[in-house]
């Protein structure tokens, strides 16, 4: 269990928690619905201000999410909002706690209209245009619109017509629990899906809100407390977590007053074949900026001049290469000796796919005893050879294409369920997996951890090399492989955000990210 991280749940897990709260803890469903409505309105007021005299349209489905919407409409009316409710169903289809809230709204003389088919919705288009704020309470976790993040299902009618009217208007939209059309488990989007400015998710946050493309549809996400006791979650497997700055700050390495370069973490970077020396240099820069006391870069002798010109603080070792300027197995003995003097190894940045380099990577993967980050072309060598026993702990850092090769699947298969892919990578290769991409995912094979930092500023060549170096530095400073990968993903993403804020996301380059690793770590350390 990871109590300092924010637990994420699937729709089924949230339903099970809701059942436990009602049946085992005695929390009535109507109480949970009222708690949800109160907390959603409070969040709306905090984010958007006083609703008094605001024109608000609440779009409600016939299920529990619609019941939440009806209760929210009542609370907004109590605060002076001019509320209009459209229920996308027949009146006789509303039941249970949702019916209780429907009758309350009607007793308050709130204007509630029923639109069970697309024509009814189209006839009410003027209400959409007239509203200033729109509450999306059509579908909650009960909706299952798609089977994968690449499979665009169609939202049922009349919801589809309502969403197609809503999205182009540019009004402020609040989604209750999650935007209608968004898959709670995968972040997949239906055609269409509500595009929310603010999502107030109920009980615990849903996985689909924090992975793309779902994260783009959710807008800002706020967690609403339903008043469930913590014991509701007791015994339930923790399948997914969201990284937080405070939790990462507690994991970052610290230096004591008597630290020196020899005991502050020794990292060996292996790669940098001719034409790709920059990748290895970026990894070395990332390692140095992340606190490694002593960084050694082992690369072909022909690439030494480039490394000497680019890196001042890093020790360089030139090794034999083939005619293409790639490392060869002739350097294995020296590299094993260097690895024996190191606390962590980073293998792969700029290694090349030359047969000799691939053979070298396979031998080192199996024989190096200290923790190792396996990146770039070292991953391609692994994919070609297949799983083999490693002499020490391993962290693999593939992008989706490399992950697809390692798992013998397609990129779409990886991206369709990134949590499942990260878990599969970890299990297949007996390693911590750090699946790169928008909202990187880390897994130990049991739990998937999604990283909220980083964005389009990282969409440039070399940033993955920086990440590999940062991960190696954290391993060398004594972090366990899982903690090293979690901290590296978060710090690297935050450094990318800082670089993008200065240079703009289109102009940020990998060296900008490396240069801001220290600022990212300092901002986190100030939190504890």
Features:
42% helix; 528 residues; Rossmann fold; alpha/beta; eleven-stranded mixed β-sheet
Walk me through this protein's architecture:
This protein is an alpha/beta fold and 528 residues long. It has 2 domains: 6-242, YjeF N-terminal domain (Rossmann fold); 247-525, Ribokinase (UDP-N-acetylmuramoyl-L-alanine:D-glutamate ligase, 3-Layer(aba) Sandwich), CATH 3.40.1190.20. The protein has 21 helices and 18 strands. It has helices spanning 11-23, 29-48, 64-78, 96-107, 118-123, 125-130, 159-166, 214-218, 245-251, 277-289, 304-310, 332-340, 355-367, 377-385, 400-407, 411-416, 418-429, 463-476, 481-503, 510-515, 517-525, and strands at 6-8, 55-60, 82-87, 112-114, 133-137, 172-176, 198-202, 220-224, 240-242, 266-270, 294-300, 315-319, 344-347, 372-374, 394-396, 432-435, 441-443, 448-450. The strands form 2 sheets. An 11-stranded mixed β-sheet has the order 1-9-18-17-16-15-14-13-10-11-12, sandwiched between helices. Strand 2 (55-60), helix 3 (64-78) and strand 3 (82-87) form a beta-alpha-beta unit. Helix 13 packs across helix 14 and helix 14 runs parallel beside helix 15. The longest helix has 23 residues, at 481-503. The radius of gyration is 26 Å and the shape is elongated.
């Amino acid at each position: 269990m990871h109590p300092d991280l924010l637990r994420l749940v699937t729709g089924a897990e949230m339903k099970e928690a809701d059942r436990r709260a009602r049946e085992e803890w005695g929390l009535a469903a109507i109480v949970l619905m009222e708690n949800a409505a109160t907390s959603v309105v409070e969040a709306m007021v905090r984010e958007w201000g006083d609703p008094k005299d605001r024109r608000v349209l609440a779009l409600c489905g016939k299920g529990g999410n619609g019941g939440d919407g009806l209760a929210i409409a009542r609370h907004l009316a109590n605060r002076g909002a001019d509320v209009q409710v459209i229920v996308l169903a027949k009146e006789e289809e509303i039941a249970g706690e949702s019916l209780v809230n429907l009758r309350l709204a009607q007793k308050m003389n709130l204007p509630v209209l029923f639109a069970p088919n697309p024509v009814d919705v189209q006839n009410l288009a003027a209400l959409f245009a007239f509203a200033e704020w729109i509450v999306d309470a059509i579908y909650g976790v009960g909706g299952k619109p798609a089977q994968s993040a690449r499979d665009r299902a169609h939202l049922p009618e009349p919801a589809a017509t309502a969403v197609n009217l809503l999205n182009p208007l540019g009004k402020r939209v609040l989604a209750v629990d999650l935007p209608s059309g968004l898959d709670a488990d995968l972040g997949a989007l239906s055609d269409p899906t509500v595009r929310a400015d603010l999502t107030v998710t109920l009980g615990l946050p849903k996985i689909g809100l924090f992975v793309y493309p779902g994260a783009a549809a959710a807008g800002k996400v706020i967690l609403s407390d339903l008043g469930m006791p913590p014991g509701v979650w007791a015994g339930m497997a923790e399948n997914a977590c969201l990284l937080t700055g405070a939790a990462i700050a507690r994991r970052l390495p610290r230096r004591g007053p008597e630290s020196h370069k020899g005991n502050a973490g020794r990292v060996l970077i292996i790669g940098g074949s001719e034409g790709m020396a920059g990748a290895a240099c970026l990894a070395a820069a990332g390692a140095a900026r992340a606190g490694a006391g002593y960084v050694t870069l082992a690369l072909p002798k022909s690439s030494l001049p480039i490394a000497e010109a680019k890196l001042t603080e890093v020790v360089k070792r030139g090794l034999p290469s083939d005619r293409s300027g790639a490392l060869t197995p002739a350097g294995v003995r020296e590299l094993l000796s260097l690895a024996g003097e190191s606390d962590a190894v980073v293998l792969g940045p700029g290694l090349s796919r030359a047969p000799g380099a691939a053979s070298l990577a396979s031998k080192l993967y199996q024989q190096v005893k200290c923790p190792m980050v396996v990146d770039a072309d070292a991953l391609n060598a692994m994919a070609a050879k297949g799983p083999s026993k490693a002499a020490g702990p391993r962290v693999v850092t593939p992008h989706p294409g490399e992950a697809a090769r390692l798992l013998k699947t397609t990129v779409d298969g990886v991206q369709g369920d990134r949590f499942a892919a990260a878990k599969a990578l970890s299990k297949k290769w007996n390693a911590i997996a750090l699946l790169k991409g928008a909202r990187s995912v880390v897994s130990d094979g049991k739990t998937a951890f999604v990283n909220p930092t980083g964005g389009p500023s990282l969409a440039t060549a070399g940033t993955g090399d920086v990440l590999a170096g940062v991960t190696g530095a954290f391993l060398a400073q004594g972090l366990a492989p899982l903690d090293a990968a979690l901290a590296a993903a978060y710090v690297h993403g935050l450094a990318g955000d800082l670089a993008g804020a200065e240079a703009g996301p289109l102009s940020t380059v990998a060296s900008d990210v490396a240069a801001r690793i220290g600022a990212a770590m300092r901002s986190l350390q100030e939190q504890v």
